[in-house]
Amino acid sequence: MPNSLHDANYISMELKVFLKLATKRERADVAAACHDSVAYLYQIAGSHRFASPFMATQIELTTRQVAAVSQGRLQTVPRATMVRHPEIFYGNADPLALSVTDITAEPDVGNDCT
Questions:
Q1: Cα separation of 83 and 58, whole Å?
Q2: pTM, rounded to two decimals
Q3: pLDDT tens digits, one per residue of 18-36
Q4: Considering 45, 58, 82, 95, which has the largest number of Cβ atoms within 10 A of its Cβ?
Q5: What pLDDT is attached to residue 113?
Q6: Concatenated DSSP letters for 48-97?
Q7: Pair 34, 74: CB distance under 8 Å
Q8: Rounded to an integer, what distance in angstroms lies between the CA atom of residue 47 and that of residue 53?
Q9: Which 8-state DSSP code applies to residue 105?
Q10: In 3-state terms, what secondary structure has residue 12?
Q11: Distance (Å, rounded) from C-alpha 78 to C-alpha 93?
């Protein structure tokens, strides 16, 4: 897996470009594999909607399979380009953000009243 979207060894394209270059059948195959419609893929491609992490992963896997048989015409669509927070895939989270234990820790309920 690449560490960034700009990794030189990872050739990819945006979903919008993929859908434009794909045939009607290829678009339908990607949509069917994701249990959704081609219209919804266009909403994700146009940034009108964001894919869930699961759907983004399904789209990436399916576009990789379709691209493999397209003789170089199509490329894989990386999942991080379709979600609201791409750092969930690549671990580029803000180090200053609160951890889960900070959020779920029991509050200190001491008697601070004087």
A1: 12
A2: 0.70
A3: 999 999 999 999 999 999 9
A4: 82
A5: 54
A6: SS---HHHHHHHHHHHHHHHHTTTTS--B--GGGSSS-THHHH----TTS
A7: no
A8: 15
A9: S
A10: strand
A11: 18
